[in-house]
Design goal:
alpha+beta
């Protein structure tokens, strides 16, 4: 029984790792980002994961790279690939239905 649980846990870890392999992940929970800042390089991909029970829209109006990831619900994720060097501030809107 324990061996089956270990194999199941290993399979889950491998499947989760493949989902965001090489990407930088920031989650949102309790209306907060999991990191207040993140240092990344051009070409890296940032994945935003919504762990809140309501819809989020993440965006940035920064000169370095503006983006709008659109609305996405709990358990969903959106990606942005960094194309230019510079500082970017991301923000979120909470959309209640």
């Amino acid at each position: 029984m324990i061996r089956k649980l270990i194999l199941l846990a290993a399979a889950l870890v491998c499947s989760l790792g493949a989902t965001y392999s090489g990407d930088r992940v920031i989650t949102q929970q309790d209306r907060k980002f999991s990191a207040s800042s993140l240092h990344a390089t051009v070409g890296e991909t940032i994945v935003f994961v919504n762990n809140d029970p309501f819809v989020h829209n993440i965006f940035s109006m920064s000169d370095a790279q503006s983006f709008d990831l659109g609305a996405f619900g709990k358990g969903e994720a959106r990606k942005i690939k960094l194309a230019k060097p510079g500082s970017s501030k991301s923000d979120a809107r909470f959309i209640r239905k």
